[in-house]
Amino acid sequence: MAIETRIAALFGQPISTLSRLHGGDLSTVYRVTLMDGTAVVAKQSSRARAEAAMLLAIRASSAPAPEVLAIEPDLMVIEYVATGGRLASAWPDLAHVLDRLHGTPGETYGWPEDYAFGDVQIVNTPHDDWPEFWAERRLLCHLPLLPAALARRIEVLSRTVSERLPASPAPSLLHGDLWGGNILAYGDAISGLIDPACYYGHREVDLAMLTLFDHPPGWFFEMLDLEPGWQERQPLYRLWPWLVHLRLFGGGYRSAVEACLAELGV
């Protein structure tokens, strides 16, 4: 059944316009205008229900995220969120948004179900020990699919994770894929966090993701009142998304993985 027909059936009215949105590397996303003039976003994904649950969790934290309007196993329709602002003007508000998001506690590290970026599985099986969670679920899981030399270095690093990370940081609700393309701004405010890969973990993980491609000012981190040693932990947290990029998009990201390993002295 055509996507237009499916959306029309969900809302009980015809579609006026439908256009593909840019930026959907791992799914197909459309902007849709209903006949009554309402604008929505439709996303086709095999993990639509899982993503909808994550958006609901973000909204429950009082952080901004699109409202889920309709959901099917492979199709999610959400509200169209106002954009047009620049992240560079919204850093102060993002700090407040992250305080609300990360202030939402979990009972342990992980999430009720696994997730994925494309073909790269994200194992979220709960664990009570944070360093073990990070070593097993975010680093060692990649070894069979990496070049041998990289795999050896990551295996060596994994033996020292318990010395590098706190054993029991507060399990905070994480966005999980917090880069600039997933942060919508309108004026000086954050209007929505989109495309989440949520789980509960150390809040510094989101900051590592945020600095992959974006460059927050120093005072932004001061606003977050981070724990001592956070800067030294960033390369270890940044290593995971670079490994994901390496597996998804190829050898162009190997140098980023190796740079993290070099920062960590491995």
TrEMBL record:
Belongs to the fructosamine kinase family. The keyword Kinase applies. It comes from Novosphingobium malaysiense. Keywords: Kinase, Transferase. PANTHER family: FRUCTOSAMINE 3 KINASE-RELATED PROTEIN, PROTEIN-RIBULOSAMINE 3-KINASE. GO terms for molecular function: kinase activity. The keyword Transferase applies. This is Aminoglycoside phosphotransferase.
